[in-house]
Amino acid sequence: MKGTMAKAHYQVLIIGGGTAGIMTAAQLRRRSRKLRMAILDPARDHWYQPAWTLVGGGTYAMQDTRRDEAAVVPAGVDLLREAAALFEPEANTVRTSNGHAYTYDHLVVCPGIKLDIDAMPGLREALATDRVCSNYIDPEKTRRVLESFQGGVALFTQPATPIKCGGAPQKAAYLADELFRRRGVRGRTRLVFATPGSVIFGVQPFRAALEDVVRKKEIILKTFHSPVRIDPGKQEVHFKWNGPGDDPRALIGEQGLPQRIEGDGTIVMKYDMLHLAPPQGAPDFVRHSPLAYAEGPNKGWLEVDIHTLQHKRYPNIFGLGDVAALPTAKTGAAIRKQAPVVVANILQRVQDGALSKERYSGYSSCPLVTGYGRMLLAEFKYDNVRDSDPLLSKLVDTGKPLWSMWVLKKYVLPWLYWNRMLKGTM
Q1: Which of 366, 368, 405, 421 is catalytic?
Q2: What is the mean pLDDT of each run of 10 residues along the chain (426 residues)?
Q3: How many domains does the chain have?
Q4: Is 227 exposed, middle or buried (0-12, 13-18, 19+ CB in 10 A)?
Q5: Which position among 23, 77, 165, 378 bears the catalytic label?
Q6: Is there a single domain that holds both residue 146 and residue 57?
Q7: In 10 A of CB 194, how many CB atoms?
């Protein structure tokens, strides 16, 4: 427990002690010392996950991405080390897996995202082998797999579900390409990036820059490939073809890859090493709650207004971060723009019951590492519109892979995260 003893009632109760929860609490605390607040989260560790790509590439230490959870909770905010289990919004109550009940004036829901490993048949078994890895789960294993790879098909892929940091799977492929070249195995490697999407990236001019990276690195790009099953015994991934037309047979034989067609539109590809993002979804206690969309494309995700971040049916509830049904990328950069909107709206409601004038435009960014010492910074907002920082853009072209952006990724952003963002000062 941090702060005073836990109370049954809080003016602001925050579900989740990740980036969104800590930033929201810190900003609220800075603007109003009088609010009684608590963060509900059983976690003991707080991770800076954006650096896990670098850990997997062997250029960042895993221990430097961790802090004690209690150490990052703002002073004066209670840390309730329990897991939320049930929302009762009509009674302004959250019940925990321990059987405790907490009531609130305002609720902030930001528990992050669930890695749903068992949603893909064969994935759990595949991850137990020494040829399959994921930066989302164990980036240190990724480094070991890349360093022991001796050639063949190196397959990188991602699911059709929403995922946090949508650029992470391709970043892993770019670093693998350079590591393989350094180790002298790239010449006997066919490096494949298979994505359910139609393009490598949805926002111009970043798409063109990344297509150029893929071309220069001689990465085999397979679009419209949704992984649905893994056979670790045969070292095969089964992909559902979701591209134009119903018959992907013309793709077989491309680039000399070991692949075949099974049944109705299933592409089966062999691998010698595999890196993938696991399927992801809202945590079960959100997905099955009255706070989530019950139907439609956002089913199971937290139902909030995309600009005010206020729940559409319960006005004293707000949501942000990966769990929210927002048509933008799920990143820490997005949270940095979402948290001030939630904070301003809660403070305004405390004052007079209204909402503030703050609005979230859908801003997010993907720091896309394209190799050791190079990165481009893709910034955008709703409708895939570029939204680059005007000051930074005057100094450098963030749409091109640059050494200065690598310095930003490896050194500047982690410092800002621990010392500014989690302190509520940016």
Answers
A1: 366
A2: 61 98 98 95 97 97 98 97 97 96 98 97 98 98 98 97 94 97 97 96 94 97 96 97 75 77 89 98 98 97 98 98 97 97 98 96 96 95 91 82 93 97 94
A3: 2
A4: buried
A5: 165
A6: no
A7: 23
